[in-house]
Amino acid sequence: MTSHRIALDPVALSRTLIRFESVTPDQGDTLDYLSSLLEPMGFTCHKMIFEEEGTEPVANLYARRGTTAPNFCFAGHTDVVPVGAQGLWSTDPFAAEIKDGQLYGRGASDMKSAIAAFVSAVERTLESADQINGSISLLITGDEEGPAINGTTKVLDWMREHGEKIDYCLVGEPTNPHKMGDMIKIGRRGSMHGYVTCTGTQGHVAYPHMAHNPIPDLVKVLAELNKEPLDEGNEHFQPSNLEIVDMHVGNESHNIIPAEAKARFNIRFNNEFSPESLQQELINRMNRADTPYEIHWWVSGDSFLTPVCALSNAVSNAVEAQTGRKPELSTTGGTSDARFIKNMCPVVEFGLVGATMHKVDEHVAISDIETLTNIYQDIIKDLTR
């Protein structure tokens, strides 16, 4: 299979991608453009649009060059979060302006520039390599920043149905807190949401014996949840953490005892727990309040840890070679689509500096984009030689 030189510049490509106003969900224009770059390099591109009742359609892309194993996949997303208060930006968030060596724009850090770096790295590798062993692929979704219903999970289902297997996956999320080479993510904590309701009897505040106030009951339940730590963490994970994020009564009157009180909480949990064992631990705690309650759960991701393997070694070696820094192997931060991909193959994450992601004036250093391209090229060479 021959390649066709298209001389991609990762900074110029980053700017082009940022100019697509692909606020979640990406409707597919960005992915069409990526396909137009990948197909001349010998990739077979599959654009998929998934939609469930009550959800918006989401465009996704799976592109593969080669048919043999190992299949090294880069995963990322072209959708971006809203710009927020646009008047606070110093530049147009979709103009992709460069100022003082920094590229500004929504998606510059998270994570269009990483996609540009990987595509450019592939092009350079194909031009310099006599032979590529195995396959290179990209799994790009337009739904990572949203509900993640019609994105990566659906693409993975399509891949299983069509006999497509990934052997290693690198996710291009921004992993470095301050400088390139700070950190590689080799796992993630899980995320569980709890919705607890205590029900009382509405009544006049002057006649409390004829009513039942659910607010003290809810306070008791929440106090039991927070009474002691969930765990102490371990070698790879920080302690699991429970945060109460909302309490709601909705009582607009000053002289009515409400009938219902609700609260929401989130737990970022490590691999000391499964979702099932964590739910049971929390139920045991809430039961100690000795008051009726109802609880509903939503698990948006399980915890996982990728053990040391060829992939993590390749990423670590490339990062150290290009930055001169030995990266920390970390499991900190929020969730990413790695939580879905880990069910198919080993997965690690490495991308740009994330200090400004989701913020006003999101930006990255243009020198870091070039460094990331070199890192990705080293990883590709390592895993396909």
| Strands, count | 19
Helix vs. strand class: alpha+beta
Strand order of the largest sheet: 1-2-6-3-7-18
Shape from CA axes?
elongated
Q: What's the tally of helices? A: 9
Range of helix content = 25-40%
Could you tell me the strand content as a percent range?
15-25%
Reported for the largest beta sheet, the result is: 6 strands, mixed
Calculate the terminal CA-CA distance, rounded to whole Å. 16 Å
Order of helices and strands: HHEEEEEHEHEEEEEHEEEHEEHEHEEH
Low-confidence stretches: 1-5
What integer is the average pLDDT?
Answer: 96
Oligomer: single chain
> Rg, please?
24 Å
Notable characteristics:
alpha+beta, 4-stranded antiparallel β-sheet, 19 strands, 6-stranded mixed β-sheet, 28% helix, 24% strand, 385 residues
Provide an overview of this structure:
The chain contains nine helices and 19 strands. It has 385 residues and is an alpha+beta fold. A six-stranded mixed β-sheet has the order 1-2-6-3-7-18, sandwiched between helices. Strands 12-14-10-15 form a four-stranded antiparallel β-sheet. It starts with 9 loop residues before the first helix and ends with a helix.
Quick structural summary:
By secondary structure, this protein is α+β, with helices and mostly antiparallel strands.
